Amino acid sequence: MPCDLAVKALIQVTWHVGVFRAMTALLKSLLAASEKAASIAQVCRQEEALFSLLIEEKRGADKNKKFLQDFKTLADVLIQEVIKHDVGEKFPELQDHIRGEESNKFENGLGETVVVQVCPTQQETAALLGKVLNRKQAAAELLAAAIHQEVVLLDPALDNVAVTISTESVAVWIDPIDSTNQYIRGHGNVMPVDGIYPSGLRSALVLIGVYNRHSGEPILGIINEPFFQEELPAHRWQSKYHWGISYEGIHLSSLNRPMLQASPCVVLSSNEKVMLRKALAPLYGERLFFASGAGYKMLCVALGLADAYVLSEGSTFKWDSCGPHAILRALGGGIVDLSEALKAWRAGQRKLLPELTYNKPVEGAVGADHWANQGGLVAYVYREHLEAVMATLAAAADTF
């Protein structure tokens, strides 16, 4: 074989091997990124130089509220950019296919536009962040240290994930801090109701989802709880992550499938329509629970704290649901499009109800609504719970 043809063949073989990787490598990379993301979220709440920026809006007549609002968004953007950087560095073929909800451009109080990104060194990142934070260098250095920390995963269970995936056919959705309002308010002492936290820091999650770019199906999901447990008296938070893989007939998860409960219950948004609550009453009676954060409510279903999460409006987005959806699929469940599923149910097509997909924007939508789950949703683990919800809502024909 001529020399140039041999080199070309070697390049092709190397590229082919490179894009077909063990799912373990991608899972570990994403989990490490989620742990770093959790650390950044924690640092913003634990370190006084950063915490004062987060809470300053609560003090009323503060100057420069635009900057403070931007700082809240900056926490989201930093996490998003860190995940994109760390995962993209290990998987270059994914760099153009890792997306989130935030723009990384900021205008600081000095009128400068700054593009937030992870720089090659900690010092360079601190200098960049100093520009965003109006020269608040102590805060910038704390964030830069969190961004450039090394994360080591000590989880032997990950070594047993022997699944191969073509990384050239997947993409990633990131929700850097789901339930941002609860994150900012920062209530860490909210008590759960039957295991479900109605509000507070427990509902602020990092969500990462991997989906097939061609079919739109979710295949790998990560939910990281940055504020899972508070260590006293230091007031330091410990995180906890959950993951799931549903890929070509293989279903693996860090979670066990929850037990069926004797008394069914559902979790809803606190601002859910009254007519939906009334429609679900024949099925759930008084066992309607309310919580903040779409990702947290989906996690409640995965943990077996609720049998279903029902949402009647298009107020969630692809970055909210992709990761939790993959975990629910790994447990034998899923997330259906409520509007489309009701149409199918009423037409007698009940075997395969249409699930959410993640690769196509909503035609004619503007801005973030391009990626909204417009028809609402039902998240579930057990098929019988989904069917009970669909039958109950379909009976309320004039309501939905």
What report would you give on this structure?
The chain is of the alpha+beta class and 400 residues long. It has helices spanning 3-19, 23-46, 48-55, 65-90, 122-132, 137-147, 180-185, 274-284, 294-302, 318-330, 338-346, 383-395; strands at 20-22, 98-100, 105-107, 113-115, 164-166, 170-178, 205-212, 218-231, 236-247, 250-253, 266-268, 288-290, 308-311, 334-337, 377-380. The strands form four sheets. The chain has a six-stranded mixed beta sheet with strand order 2-6-7-8-9-10, sandwiched between helices. Strand 8 (218-231) and strand 9 form a beta hairpin. The longest helix is centred in the N-terminal third of the chain and has 26 residues, at 65-90. The radius of gyration is 22 Å and the shape is globular. The protein starts with a helix and ends in a 5-residue tail after the last helix. The model is unreliable at 1-19 and 56-70 (pLDDT under 50).
Question: Which features does this protein show?
Answer:
400 residues, alpha+beta, six-stranded mixed β-sheet, five-stranded mixed β-sheet, 12 helices, 15 strands, disordered N terminus
| Biggest sheet descriptor | 6 strands, mixed
Q: Report the mean per-residue pLDDT as an integer.
A: 86
What pattern of helices and strands is seen along the backbone?
HEHHHEEEHHEEHEEEEEHEHEHEHEH
Shape summary? globular
Distance between the amino and carboxyl termini: 67 Å
Give the spatial strand order of the biggest sheet.
Answer: 2-6-7-8-9-10
Number of helices: 12
Radius of gyration using CA atoms only: 22 Å
Got a strand count?
15
Unreliable stretches: 1-19, 56-70
Q: Which structural category fits the helices and strands? A: alpha+beta
The proportion of strand residues reads 15-25%
Helicity level, as a percent range? 25-40%
